Amino acid sequence: MVQPSGTPKTPAGSRSRVAAHPVISAIIAILILASIFFALWVPLYASATPKVGDFPFFYIYLLIYMPVLGVVLWIVITLQQKLRPRPGAGGPADAGDGEVAR
């Protein structure tokens, strides 16, 4: 179909997954950028003080940062799975009767 302005009309269900879920996509982007930022912002952890026992702050920062990063990336993966199409949702992957969608 062509709209009066001359641009082709797209069906309602053909938007990309990212465009269809902008809030989830924004949360994923913020979490990834924050994890990169806190790893690359050296003045945050490049100091010998404060110390915890004999360990400088750099080691304590890493001991805290790595498990937190694991949880953040798990959240990102979980959110990305919400963006993927599910079988049976009526998409091209659900051709029915075992036939391959063309």
How do the strands and helices of this protein lay out in sequence?
Elements: H1 17-20, H2 22-40, H3 57-83
Helix pairs in contact: 2-3
Structure commentary:
The mean pLDDT is about 75. Helix 2 packs antiparallel against helix 3. The chain is built from 3 helices and no strands. The protein has helices at about 15-20, 20-40, 55-85. By secondary structure, the chain is mostly helical. It is elongated. Helix content is about 50%, strand content about 0%. The longest helix has 27 residues, at about 55-85.
The separation of the N and C termini measures 21 Å
What shape does the CA trace take?
elongated
Strand content: under 5%
Broad structural category: mainly alpha
Write a compact overview of the structure shown.
The protein is mainly α. It is 49% helix and 0% strand. It is built from three helices and no strands.
Descriptive labels:
102 residues, mainly alpha, 3 helices
